[in-house]
Amino acid sequence: MNPATLIPIADTLTAPNGWFQFFLMLTFPLHLFAMNAMLGAGLVAFISHLYPGRAYRELSHELAKALPFLVAFTVNLGVAPLLFVNVIYGHLLYSSTVLMGLFWLAVIPLLIIAYYLAYIYDFSFQKLGNLAMFVLLAVLVLLLTVGFIFSNNMSMMISPASWSRWFTTPGGTLLNLADPTLLPRYLHIITGSLAVGGLFTALYATTVLKSDQEVSEAGRKLGMQLFSWLTLLQFGVGSWFLLTLPKQTMLRFMGGGSIATALLAVGVVLAVATLITGFKRLVLPTVWLTLPLVYVMSFMRDVVRGNFLAPYFNPTTVPVQVQWSPLLFFLATLVLGIGVIVWMLSRLQIFKKAS
Asked: 14 near 322, Cβ under 8 Å?
């Protein structure tokens, strides 16, 4: 069966595609930063439970206070990029979601349970004692499971050739496990998230927790070690992911496409630079190098998505019927939302410690 015959017709856009693409690439890294901080803080807190001493115990406790907020920010900052993916690739994403509908419907309850357990880990930290680390482990497992479900959906969205499986398995239980890119794709983004999350923890420890020198140093040490070693591991995982891509797509990053090749070169240079500053435990220089690196990696993933979909769909060919009001309403809401977030953060005691 020709995969193209299974693809629904794309909806008419209310503004030129470039606007939606711009906001997708602007907001998706913001979601990644929050997700990185959430996973990294959780991992550092878990590792801290394995170390003896007051400093590591207090570090886990302080990160426990931040974890519920990080979960909330991750979920909320994920709304905008998911919205723009739906606007541009909605007919594809809807199809892949139906194929794995049972797993997709599980995302919300899994997130609710993880969020609830994060609050238990925070509010009952002292009462739980040694059990606290197992509550945190459950939170991490649930969040990583949600990430795996998202990776399945996004990889199946760009693989219409796999959709014909629905005719033999129509119960919404399909996953994209046969795709050779799925596992390295997932591990690439999770390894990167945990690495950047370690950097967030180091930054958090050196700013918010600076009043307790012992705890601050423990957080900085663990966070930078996690960032540096996982970033080093990223070179291996990233190479694996690159080699599993279809040859035509892979060659675009090897000189076959000027933009793709430039992005890969810049990404490698920035990654090497973060390794140097990371192993030297230079927190702020590493942060400033990592910010553009995350955006570069996001652009590279967009190139991969475009190449996978090239035989089936080109967003620039979708008809446009201009209606600026929805986009303007989003922008107004975005500005208002950012203002509310800044005000809310200014009211949080855990961030007032940094001032």
From this structure: yes
Q: Given CA atoms 283, 289, 295, 298 in this order, what sign does their dihedral have?
A: negative
Q: Are 192 and 271 in contact (CB under 8 A)?
A: no
Residues 6 or more apart whose Cβ sits within 8 Å of residue 99: 156, 163, 165, 166, 172, 174
Q: Which tokens in the block code for residue 132?
A: 């606290």
- C-alpha dihedral sign at 79, 81, 82, 87: positive
Q: Are 63 and 136 in contact (CB under 8 A)?
A: no
Residues near 115 by beta carbon (within 8 Å), at least 6 away in sequence: 68, 71, 72, 75
Cα 132 from Cα 57, distance rounded (Å): 11
pLDDT tens track for 51-92: 888 888 999 999 998 899 899 989 988 988 999 999 999 999
Q: Supply 346's token pair.
A: 């200014």
The rounded distance, in Å, linking the Cα atoms of 2 and 65 is 52
CA distance 138 to 207: 28
In angstroms, what is the C-alpha Rg of the chain?
Answer: 21
From first CA to last CA, the distance across the chain in angstroms is 62
Tokens matching residue 161: 């050739």
Question: CA 293, CA 287: separation in Å to the nearest integer?
Answer: 10
Predicted confidence at residue 296, as pLDDT, reads 94
Domain boundaries, given as residue ranges, for the chain = 15-319
Domain 15-319 annotated CATH 1.20.1630: yes
The answer to whether the pTM exceeds 0.85 is yes
Q: Is 13 helix (H, G, I), strand (E, B) or coil?
A: strand
pLDDT tens string 14-51: 888 999 999 999 999 999 999 999 999 999 999 999 88
Contact in structure between 176 and 170 (CB atoms under 8 Å)? no
